[in-house]
Amino acid sequence: MKKFLPLIILAILCILPFIGLSTYVMHILILVLMWSIIGMGWNILGGYTGQVSFGHAAFFGMGAYAAGLLYQHLGISAWWGLPVCVLILTALSLVVGYICLRLRGAYFALATLALGEICRVAAENLVGFTKGNMGIMLRERTWVDKTWYFYIILLLAAGTYILIKMVMESKLGYYFVAIREDQDAAESLGINTTFYKTISLCISGVLTGIAGAYYMNYMGYIDPSTVFPLSEVSIATVVVVMVGGAATYWGPIVGAVIMIFLAEEIRSIPFIGAAHQTIFGIILILIVMFLPNGIVGDFRKLIKPFKGKKGASS
Amino acid sequence: MSLIEVRNVSKQFGGLAALTDVSFVLNKGEILGLIGPNGAGKTTMFNVINGFYPPTKGDVLLKGEKVSNLKPHVLCKLGVARTFQVVKPLQRMSTLDNVIASAFIRTKSKAQAEEISMEVLKFTNLYDDRNVISKSLPLGRRKRLEIARALATKPEIILLDESFAGLNPTEINEQVEIVNKIRTERGITILIIEHHMRVIMSISDRIVVLSYGLKIAEGTPLEIGRNPVVIEAYLGEAHNA
Question: Which of A151, B63, B140, B184 is most enclosed, with most CB atoms within 10 A?
Answer without folding.
Answer: B140
